[in-house]
Structure prediction request, 223 residues.
Amino acid sequence: MSKKARKRPPAAPEPGRYVVVPRQREFIDPELVWFALWCRANRDRQAAEALGQAGIVTYRPLEARRVLGRRGQPTVVERSPVGRYVFAGLEPGCHFRAIRRALEPPERPRLSFTLVDENGAYSLSVRPYAPEAPHARLMATEAGPVTVPAGLLQAYADAVTLWGSSVGPTGFVPGQRVRVLDGPFEGLGALVEAAGDSRVRGLVEMFGRLTSVAFEPEQLEAA
Prediction:
């Protein structure tokens, strides 16, 4: 008797594609001293909020990504391009301990229990409290906490938001909505993925998915 073939698990879906599009510029105050922080996994937002509540200026890198939504419609989401980094700015002369204090988890009261037996005797016990680790910590070397020049951080922030992106030789920029004028995709809309010196690569929705297609610049027009 032949053995039944084992069922293979379904193939994993292909990773979703996205296009980075311009978003509002992030201003890095050049008068502040900027410190780099390393966050716990998925805690960069909480770290930035804790610092903000303490009155400390923060920069959390976020880029705008256009993706294909659940219903097949393009939508824009904000995601961190570097994951677990946050930057905190302090006035010159302000000690970096202010950042550490802002990131300390709030105090929690110790829990106590009273046990009473049938004879009326009692005992008191206290449950030990293990403090939660902070959302982030200062990155440091033997010389002390790592600082980032404001100008360098501003240049990085501008690259993340695509601020000041110029139109390329083809006349199109990544993230731009266009319409196909000629060829097998005539009449369809597309999203510019990359614009080189002579050709434009755009994302065209086909069968519920975004497919990358190369076009000549004259085949496209702004939507």
Remarks:
- Residues 166-223 form a domain with the SH3 type barrels. fold (CATH 2.30.30.30).
- The longest helix spans residues 150-161.
- The chain has two domains: 18-165, 166-223.
- The longest strand covers residues 33-39.
